From TrEMBL:
This is YqcI/YcgG family protein. Pfam families: YqcI_YcgG (PF08892). It comes from the Bacteria. It comes from Mesobacillus jeotgali. InterPro entries: Uncharacterised_YqcI/YcgG.
Length: 249
């Protein structure tokens, strides 16, 4: 379906069955009081109806990247109207045959899609962000906006905070995170609560790659896609895919 959706939108009746089910399961996950989702800012965005939702096709199809680019472009143009806790939630039409795929396949698709977005981006990369993801200040940019990316998949079993019934992205503008971090004492308190929730939510220890943006030992790309164990890639695939696409890095 084209366009962005909100919780309780009257256009929900136009959605396909898989789209309705994805929204329903997401709403249940975000509103669960007995087992609250660890990311408190995300639950605030959900409860205040600041999240926006979009649907794209099969993750394995190249055409799906164009659908993703179209939705992210629309969101980028409108996001500042949605509130200080907004994010774009993208659900992929994940076929049943793919739901048993290993985490590593989803990981590769995720990085291919990020590289594909950059290939379709009509805007120049922001001057204040290095193009090398192995620089601690690097973060993903699209349409002139800086974004934090989060990916959840059906393959995640131990890391429930990264599990969803279909492949899913949560895309959060950097300005949202900056707004959240304005009060250092508040941000520190919330981050401590998030880590406590995470320890209870997942059946595995907190991934060692979770860190703070801008820290010298932090690399944002490592946090975008966390594996279902404590391992991680040694080099960012985005860097490699961009070279294949002929992009400067």
């Amino acid at each position: 379906m084209n366009g962005l959706y909100t919780h309780g939108s009257s256009s929900r009746g136009e959605l396909l069955e898989w789209e309705k089910q994805a929204l329903k399961k997401f709403f249940l996950k975000m509103s669960d009081k007995e087992k609250p989702f660890p990311c408190i800012p995300a639950t605030i965005g959900f409860s205040t109806n600041q999240l926006r939702y979009g649907f794209v096709g099969n993750p394995r199809r190249d055409t799906t990247i164009k659908e993703l680019a179209s939705l992210l472009t629309t969101y980028t143009e409108q996001s500042r109207e949605f509130g200080n806790y907004t994010s774009l939630i993208i659900f992929y039409e994940t076929p049943e045959s793919m739901k048993n795929a290993p985490v590593e396949e989803y990981e590769q698709i995720f990085w291919e899609h990020l590289s594909g977005l950059t290939a379709l981006d009509a805007f120049e990369w922001p001057n204040d962000i290095p193009q090398d993801p192995h620089d601690p200040v690097w973060e993903f940019c699209f349409n002139g906006e800086k974004y934090f990316m989060y990916c959840a998949t059906p393959a995640h079993k131990n890391r429930k905070s990264r599990h969803f019934d279909v492949m899913m992205l949560a895309i959060t503008p950097r300005w949202v995170l900056q707004e959240f971090n304005k009060s250092q004492s508040y941000a520190k308190r919330i981050k401590s609560q998030v880590r406590k929730r995470l320890a209870k939510y997942d059946s595995i220890s907190i991934h060692p790659d979770l860190n703070t943006y801008g820290a010298q030992d932090n690399f944002e790309w490592r946090q975008y896609f966390l594996r279902d164990d404590d391992t991680s890639l040694s080099k960012c695939p985005y860097h490699r895919f961009l070279k294949l696409l002929g992009k400067n890095t």
